[in-house]
Amino acid sequence: MAAVLDALWEDRDVRFDITAQQMKTRPGEVLIDCLDSIEDTKGNNGDRGRLLVTNLRIIWHSLALPRVNLSVGYNSIINITTRTANSKLRGQTEALYILTKSNNTRFEFIFTNVVPGSPRLFTSVIAVHRAYETSKMYRDLKLRGALIQNKQLRLLPQEQVYDKINGVWNLSSDQGNLGTFFITNVRIVWHANMNESFNVSIPYLQIVMDYEMEEKPQPLEELTVDQLPDDVEIEPDEQTDAFTAYFADGNKQQDREPIYSEELGLAIEKLKDGFTLQGLWEVMGS
Amino acid sequence: MSLFKARDWWSATLGEGEEFDQGCLCVGDVDNSGTGHDKVVVGSYMGMLRVLSPHSSKAGEGPQSQADHQLLEVQLPHPIIQVEVGKFVSCSDQLHLAVLHPRKLSVYAVSGTAGNVEHGAQYQLKLVYEHNLQRTACNMTSGPFGGVTGHHSVCIQSMDGMLMFFEQESYSFGRFLPGFLLPGPLAYCPRTDNFLTVSSTRQLESYRYETLAVATEAESRQDPELPLKTGGKRLTPDWTVILGEAALDLSVPSFSHASSSICVLGERNLYCFRDNGQIRFMKKLEYNPSCFLPYASVTEGTTNLLLGNHNNMLLVYQDVTLKWAAQLACVPVAVRVANFSELRGVLVTLSSEGHLQCSYLGTDPSFFSTPKVDAREVNYEQLDAEMKTLQRFIREATRTQDILPKADTEEALTVTTTVSSSMDTPSQALIQDIDGLPVPSVTVKVKVKSSCVLQGSKLTISVSSPLAVSQDQFTLEPMGVGSSTVVAFSAFLNGHYPPADLTGDIALSYSSPTELNPKGVPRVHQSRFDLPLALVCISTSPAKSAKHKITVDTNKPPVNLTAVFPEFYEKSEESDGNSLAVQFLSGARVTVLASKTSQRYRVQSESFEDMWLVIKELVQRFEHHFIKQGVKDIRHSFTAPLPLPEYFQTVDHHFQLRVSAQHYQDLLAERAVQFRAIQRRMLTRFKDKTPAPLQNLDTLLDATYHQEEPIDSKADPCVCFPHIDFTWVGRPWHINSRQNIFGNPFFLSVRESDAIPDQLTSGQTPLALPLQYLVVLL
């Protein structure tokens, strides 16, 4: 299951300098808009590039050097706003700010349209991201949600119920729960008959079927093959720190663990050794 | 101030397009789990009630792990204005959830049943009781009204200023607030059993519960016909404090009995009062606040409070001292502090769009700096080249204005001129013959080939007098890209003196349309052509002696003149190649003699000025001849002293002619005036109705006419002569082509010529000044 989920990284991850293979749309991924003359104002200021908007992510790549690129999955996006930014190609201009969080690291992206007067950058990205956000129910597992009303499944747009099976046990608790199963074209939904609020919605996208097959063991001769010792050493790809340009919080990759501060009565990020809250505040606040 | 950021501990986006406000967030152990850990309860204006149990998300966990953070989600049929957790059920000391709808107060029990796994736990929302409201609710407050212990009552403020009191399942009473206009925030102070609100009169008002209970029954006011209930008192506040501004929120913290304070968040100020209405402190805010929460008393006697503002900031105050500030992702409309199993003191903020965030205060200052990207190597050569091209673009852009088209590297059109090698038959010349010699003409063809669209093209031909052309102006049709047009005309001698120059000029004016300028930008193309010497002279027999002689030395062996001037040998039989003689149609005979032994050529003629064209032609043809043979370093020189006397003589002659021309012109003008005066008089005589004698006016007119005639004939050649001399005067310019005499306007009309090589003039520069001086005198 984990392997399958990892395989679908396009909408989950923020990746930098991806390969040409990874830039291609995966099965089910559709290119929605392609905007030329977009500048990545934060990481590649002054560099003209192309922005590809798919249903899973946005990809920006430099026109001069296509290997300079980035892929931002919609699921990692925390916030999209339009603000004024300073672009080398355009000067003061309206820009698209995207705040993302991927693997506990926050990245900020700023895209600027080099062609003046075209709001397509903003409308396109914001609209597609909104469509992604509002279609979460089709993709994500939902537990204990407001799925059932008056014993009926609240259908999603274009969803059709194919079957309703009563008497399905959920064995997640000791005594088990008897419930009802809805099978639709998008997902399967189960809810406890005694408690509508106890339910689960599982889109097919999240389901991995396990098949067990009996196989005849292969003859031993076929399995043993003389293995020549490898004399090739695979060097790992040279690591780039291109992503450092996009940190939302300066050069900080990860936050330190939170602790409770008696001084403030609130949870704070654990202080570095030798620092005190008051000292830090007095230096920074003055 | 935004040095520190709030660190995301857990966050969720609730719903799609749902709306949230101040009362929509509360925290508490609503499911009575007994652990004391808070759950987050969020209601929305769209009627969605959610109970969430945030956990910190560990690295590596997918988004699916957040699915079990939601304990309950129920769609209620009415909008949710406010949610409160408290002991609202009389026979139970368990916490219940009070949900305020516009016309209903519902109290629910949230119960959980643990499962084997996290996602196996089920939660249920059970309605315990509900009150339908007669009036539309605005907000509510709860507490142990009247000092009861063990359970909480609810007070709801309606939009029209009625306070409705509910003691759990039963309605107690309702009271109208005096002087009500618009509802303000409402709070209950358990220490003094007072209700606090900020009224439309912009003052903080405190009402005792007892006073409210015994005041005039609200219902009686509804129906004025009913008599007032006895014992009902007019409701008056216990105390009031003028704030002078509307309040956003009101809170009575109760974390310690020692600290008694009432906190009011105004639109511009933060106030803190004691329970009796005495002011403790007031803090002027330099920003637009959005929400606040007194959350603790860390030090005895002080109040710690959180304050959110519309600049996405969350500020931590201890009384009036700012202790910390953190940047949030969005503007909070409600803030709470919650204790979860993993972490205490978590900041829970809710934005109006439904961003629910549990965060802690970051302690790493974030300075705004652009981080360097080192990994991508820079190609300096490429960057240098790019920089250069860009700078060139910038230079070009700043030099030429927008409306002008870019200077094309290639010409928009090419003009090729072909001078026919043979003379026209019959001749197109206007003067058929001069002194019995037929005047020839030669056809010149001009081919115009355009590489862009041409409009309004005009071709103008100019030759120096006395040469003339059969047509000197051509209007060309508009031309497309790649098209070509040919025009032809004849050139011939049209005067009785030899020309100074045989070159002709072609000027083609046209306009090429550009995108910005559809009418086209006017442009001019210029080119020149050379007419053959044979146009103005014919070959004749050489003269042995002559008045004027000029010897041209060369550094190359003598050339057979037949090879250099083939056209003059066509007819003559004697072609020894050593001598050449040409007779100018309207001038002297010029003989060229080539030395058999030395590398010298002698040019001789009776007329000094007529030798110029022949010498020019000779030097030019020699150069062509040697260049064709591959010889490059050909030199011509003139060693003898300059024939200045002849030159000056000519200049003097010219001067004389000009003076006499002027004289005759004046004379002619005088006679013409006289002639016209006589004419006028005669005319009046003739017109007179009574005829009068002419009084010999006719004789006078005749005489004047006869006087005029000879002057006319004398003036005519004088007018012509200056041309000869102008051209002659032009010659020093040829000789001194190195001298900068452009300052003299006379010379501006004289073309620079490369006909005479500079060697001929070597060592003669001192001549330039006196010559120039002479010319100026002229």
TrEMBL record, chain A:
GO MF annotation list: phosphatidylinositol-3-phosphate binding
Keyword list, A-Z: Cell membrane, Cell projection, Cilium, Cytoplasm, Cytoskeleton, Membrane
Superkingdom per UniProt: Eukaryota
Keyword NAD annotated: no
Any one cellular-component term (Gene Ontology): ciliary basal body
GO biological process, one term: cilium assembly
Subcellular location: Cell projection, Cilium membrane; Cytoplasm, Cytoskeleton, Microtubule organizing center, Centrosome, Centriolar satellite
Annotated TM spans: none
Domain BBSome complex member BBS5 PH: 29-83, 159-216
Matches recorded under Pfam families: BBL5
Main location: membrane
Family label: Belongs to the BBS5 family.
Protein name in the entry: Bardet-Biedl syndrome 5
Organism encoding this protein: Merluccius polli
From TrEMBL, chain B:
Signal sequence residues: none
Domain PTHB1 hairpin: start-end pairs: 641-707
Domain PTHB1 platform stretches: 532-638
TM annotation in the entry: none
Residue ranges of domain PTHB1 GAE in the record: 438-529
Coiled-coil segments on the chain, per record: none
Record GO cellular component, one term: membrane
InterPro entries for this protein: PHTB1_GAE_dom, PHTB1_N_dom, PTHB1, PTHB1_hp_dom, PTHB1_pf_dom
Biological-process GO terms, alphabetical: cilium assembly
Pfam families associated with the record: PHTB1_N (PF14727), PTHB1_GAE (PF14728), PTHB1_hp (PF23338), PTHB1_pf (PF23337)
Domain PTHB1 N-terminal: start-end pairs: 1-365
Protein name per its UniProtKB record: Protein PTHB1
Lineage: Eukaryota, Metazoa, Chordata, Craniata, Vertebrata
Gene expressing this chain: bbs9
